Amino acid sequence: MHTDRRTLLQAAAALPLATVGANAAFAQAPAAAPAAAPPKEVTRALAHYLVTASHDDLPANVRKEGVRTLLNWVGVAIGGSHHETVDIAVSALGPFSGPQQASLFGRRERFDIMNAAFINGVSSHIFDYDDTHLKTIIHPAGPVASAILALSEMQPVSGKEFLNALVLGVETECRIGNSVYPNHYDVGWHITGTAGVFGSAAAVGKLLKLNEQQMTWALGLAASQPVGLRESFGSMNKSFNPGRAASSGIFAAILASKNFTSSDAMIEAKRGWANTISTKQDYNEILGDLGKRYESALNTYKPFACGIVMHPAIDAAIQLRNENKVTADQIERVDLKVHPLVLELTGKKTPSQGLEGKFSIYHAVAVAIVEGAGGEKQFSDRAVTDPTIVALRGKVNPVITSGIKPEQVDLTIVLKDGRKLNRYIEHAIGSVEVPMTDKQLETKFSDLAEGIIPAATARRVMDACWNVENLPSAAEIAKMSVAV
Fold first, then answer.
1. Which of 26, 190, 437, 455 could disulfide-pair with 228, CB 3.0 to 4.6 Å?
2. Is residue 228 domain-resident?
3. What pTM does this model have?
4. C-beta neighbour count of 341 within 10 angstroms
5. How far out from the chain centre does Cα 434 lie?
6. Contact, 221 vs 169, CB < 8 A?
7. Which letter, b or e, does each residue of 186-197 get, where b requires 16 or more Cβ atoms within 10 Å of its Cβ?
8. Strand (E) or helix (H) holding 106
9. Which residue numbers delimit the MmgE/PrpD N-terminal domain (predicted)?
10. Residue 172: per-residue pLDDT
11. What is the spatial distance between Cα 11 and Cα 317, in angstroms, rounded to a whole number?
């Protein structure tokens, strides 16, 4: 499995050290090689796979990862449900919502499935605490789970049908993401939204039992709705993107179910999705070993509520802090050897809001040392303005270093008494190589649900997620995950 994995943000790894500026890395990247002629009928071949793939075809490890994906997503959706961003969305969209068809996780309101999927997608991403496909940095569950859980409250969906659709949706968006990554991401697209809409359309289309032609059209209509730009990072707009991808995928699949047509080659055509939004197109990533190689089995879950490239530094900082009982007043400085993209993506030196702190390596390291954690409370407005944390982040010194990969860090805490504490992280907790355990996922879920739903209810929801394949109705998960 390791040899199959493209290193996170691989294309940027060979960039010269001079590319520290926000846009220089992408400006100096080598030109892409001429694309080979695309295979015929990429969109249709994918559609054929989606309409014929069954739950019984899924290997046991893929089903298990699908269940873990579900449990993690439900936890983060509940946890983010009362963030100001979600309050605003509920207030803004309430007057325009249709029939009360679906639940809002962690809340009392009910909305039509389009708006419920959008709001739940926003809620699940607002903490930047959701799942991550490290090969593309797609957060797969938001666009897919938000859509099919909403749909499951409108029509009968068994647990087995639900899990199959979830896996197929995640598989679709990650494979399509692979086909254009990293070039598509490098120019500024937020790939969770742009690829996620395909996952939502595929999963909803599966549950609507579209035929091959209808699924082809659903994928085509999804291709017409790419959403999300990286400029939105650090604002409420970032979580808009997976939410909108969820609702747009429903939109595409429902229209296709009524024979609303599209081009049959919307992914691969000369003026189709892949050629329009990226200078790289690798269609084998979409069609190669379908049903044998599962990208969904490579999904990972965040122990820290922030940008993934900061996780190695947080992991190292917490380890050194706990092992040596380090306090902020003892520290002279903190030196980090990092990959260029750490500063490219998380170089905010003076975040003033919690959402900005999620993209500040300075804040992430400081708060990890001060509080020994990196959960959603550590990336709140309270944390980014804490005087002790603010003072310490001024002592954090990230240095771009040749040979350091995006998933690595070499961190040294220099104490005022002259001691140097060092920790090198090859793979942080939460990676494919060092995955979070089921127990750690449950602890994360419980922490997120605290104060929103009762502990006993949280336990029942977790049990339902673990047991989803045996549920007569997947809607049970949504219905029991609301505030009382």
1. 190
2. yes
3. 0.89
4. 22
5. 18
6. no
7. beebbbbbbbbb
8. none
9. 45-284
10. 98
11. 27
